[in-house]
Design goal:
This protein has 217 residues and is α+β, with helices and mostly antiparallel strands. The chain has two domains: 3-33 and 168-208, no CATH class; 37-164, no CATH class. The protein has four helices and eight strands. A hairpin with a 2-residue loop joins strand 7 and strand 8.
Amino acid sequence: MHNENLIASVTTGRTVTTTVDEVVELFVLPDEDPESPREWDNMGTFYTCERRRYSPDKHGLSPEGVAAAARDAVLHGGVMRPVYKYEHSGVVYSTKPFSCRFDSGLVGYIFATIENILEVFEPEGLEDNDQPMTPEGIESYLEGLKAKALTALDNEVEVYSQYASGDVWGYDVRVSGVSVESCWGIFGQDEAQTRGQEEFDRVVAAAKANTLDTEED
C-alpha cells in the first residue's frame, strides 16, 4: 500500500469519488434483513393484538385473553407492563402512553412469570446467610427483584421498537472499494456510527503503518 496516497473518509450511505488510488471509507447503512429481537433469549413474553401487524411473540389469544395471561403472571408473583404503540409514518412501541390520542393506544402487554425472573436474576447471597430472612426481608428482596425485572421488560420493548421502526444498522469499512471490516445487526444508528468509527480509525492506523491486508479471498 502506498501510504502517501491514503485518504481517510467518513461517509454514511454514499460513495466518495476521488482520483486518488487508495481511499478508506466508512459506510453506515440500514440493515435490510435484521433478526427480530424476539428470536433472542428474552425474559418477557410480548403479546399484542393489532390489525395490520403480527404480535412480537406469536399467540392465538383474543385481546381479553392476552390481558388475562398478563394478569395471571402477576397474580402468581410475576410482573407485567402495558404496551402502547404510536403509528404515524412509522411505528414506536413503549411501556408508557403517548401524548397523541389519535395515532396511539394500548395494543398489548409484556409480562414475565416469577420462574422467568428467577432464571434471569438468580438469587444472590441467600445461601450465604446463616440466619433465616424475616418476612420483611423477603418482601424487600422480592420487590427489588421485581424492579429489575420491570426494567428488563422496558428494555425489551425499547429494542423491539427499534427493530419495528427500522432502526437497525450496520457498518462497512472499505479500502479502495474493498470491504475489509463490517458488522450488521446493530440497534441504533448512533451506536452503529460509534462502532463503525472505532473500526474505521483502526483500519486507517493499520493502513498508515502499512500493516493492513486488503486482498479479497
